[in-house]
Structure formats: structure tokens, C-alpha cells
Amino acid sequence: MGLTLHYKFKFHGSRSKAGKLVHALYQKAQDLPFKELGKVVELTGPECEMDRYEQDDPLRWLVIQSMASVEIKDTHASSNNGLGSTWISFPAQRIIAFTAWPGKGCEEANFGLCQYPATIFSPSHGQLRTKIRGWRWSSFCKTQYASDPDCGGLQNFLSCHLSLIAMLDHAQYLGLLDQVHDEGKFWEGRNVEDLAGRVGEWNEFMAAVGGKIKDVLGEGVEMPISQYPNFEQLELAGQNQLPPQVETLAKLIKQVSKT
Asked: Which of 80, 166, 208, 217 is the most buried (most CB within 10 A)?
């Protein structure tokens, strides 16, 4: 949980053209102030399966984000609308992608394109159509904790978030961009002051939520926001942002922790 940038790419064309587009995006990444930049990798078949990679393998997160899922409606499940859903995840058939790390405190960002099988087999549901055509990419990067004063504060956060925005601008120029959801609202408004204000509000909110949870579970709880040197000030400032549901959540956590 935290201020995050979500994005999707799509492309219909040959493997050769898909590779050229990913490399063109990689060229843009080389001109931006990323802390680290991996190489473009092309994975096929079993190389696209998550279980192939150990927890500390640098490709593991990229492969995890490359996975897609198909929804199975369950007409017998009970829910508000009478329908339930089961999501079945599956790996890509081919991945062309790379990893870029914007900076301290920020998650790694992955960019690329994938091809997926037309059908998959589920032991419980049989043969299923994936309904995915062409090349796709769906990913996200949490940038909020780049604003930790120990990581460089607001300046570092802005560098990280805006570098990713520049990548998405270039993806749009290349004709790859499908969707963007920017929780910092910069993608729509292009207002740096507003973005700076929003990450401050997110920090205050997360600190207040984190403080409430720590009150219940004790000091052993580790959260990124609790590592901020100004955590207590943020926690106090965020108290007026807490919705009633947080109190309910805290009580539920306390109840479950006793069982």
C-alpha cells in the first residue's frame, strides 16, 4: 500500500517489431537518471515461469509481473451480486523486457511486452481461453517511499516518479501505451506542486494507519513508513485523514492476533 504508478502496454505485430519497440524504450531509459538499469532480456517457454527463479534472482520480480490471469465466473458462489470469481494465473509464452530502478526507497519498475497462450489447462476447470491477443504488458511501481528523508526526501521522490512518467510518455510516443493510473495524479494534471503535496498527504495517511496497527500489534511491526525519521510527526498530522474503517480493522487485527 502506498502511492503507486500503474501502467499497461499493448502491441499487435511481429516479434521483431516488438523487440525493436522495447529496445527503443530501453534507449529512452538510458537517458534518464535511473539508479540502476538492467539489460533487455528475451525469455521463452519455461524461462517465463516464476518457480524457475529463486527469491533473490534479479529476474524474479520481472517474471512475476509478466504473468496474466483469466477470470472464471462461479454462478453458485454467494456474493452481493450472486456471482463469484476465481482468478487463474498463468505465465507468458515469450517475454521481452527490462528492469529499471529509479532510486532509493522506490520499487523497481519493469517495462516490456509479452505474448500469451490462446488457451491454458486448469485441473479444476479444464481447457480455458485466455482471450489475450497480440503483445501485452501490465505493471506497477510504488514510488511513495522514495520520499523518505533518509533516501533523499521530496527531491528523490520527484526524480523517481517523474522518470517513470517520462518513460510512459515515450511509450505513448512509440504507440505502446494502453492505460495509466497515477495515484499521484501527475499523469493527468502535470502539476509538480500538486504531486509534491499528494505524496505528503500519502505519507501522513500511511503513518497514521501504520501507527494504529503498531498500537495493536506492538513495536515489532515493520512498515516502510515507520522507518522515516519524522514518522511520529507524520502520524500525528495524518490522524484527521483516518476513515472509520481503520478503527474496525485495528479491532479485527487484535481479535485475530489473539486466536
From this structure: 208
Judged by DSSP in three states, 55 sits in coil
Sorted by where each begins, the domain ranges of the chain are 4-190, 191-259
What's the confidence (pLDDT) of residue 241? 76
206, HSE (Cβ side, Cα atoms, 13 Å):
22
Q: How confident is the model at residue 82 (pLDDT cuts 50, 70, 90)?
A: very low
> How big is the CA angle at 214 (ends 208 and 220), to the nearest 5 degrees?
140
d(Cα 39, Cα 114) in Å, to the nearest integer?
Answer: 16
Name the DSSP letter for residue 22.
Answer: H
Q: Rounded distance, CA 155 to CA 20, Å? A: 33
- SS3 state at 9: strand
CA distances from 96 to 27, 58, 73, 113, 194 (A): 14, 15, 31, 5, 35
Total Cβ atoms within 10 A of residue 95 = 24
Secondary structure class of 159 (helix, strand, coil): helix
Do residues 174 and 25 make contact, with C-beta atoms less than 8 angstroms apart? Answer: yes
What crossing angle do the helices spanning 192-217 and 244-258 adopt, rounded to 10°?
Answer: 30
Residue of 237, 171, 204 lying closest to 5 (CA atoms) = 171
Q: What ranges in the chain are assigned the alpha helix state H? A: 15-30, 60-66, 153-173, 186-189, 192-217, 231-237, 244-258
From CA 24, how far away is CA 169, in angstroms rounded?
Answer: 13
Half-sphere exposure (Cβ direction) of 36: Cα atoms closer than 13 Å: 11
Instruction: Tell me which amino acid residue 97 is.
Output: A
Quick one: average pLDDT of 103-108? 98
Share of the chain above pLDDT 70, in %: 89
Q: Is 194 left (phi over 0), alpha (psi -120 to 50) or beta?
A: alpha
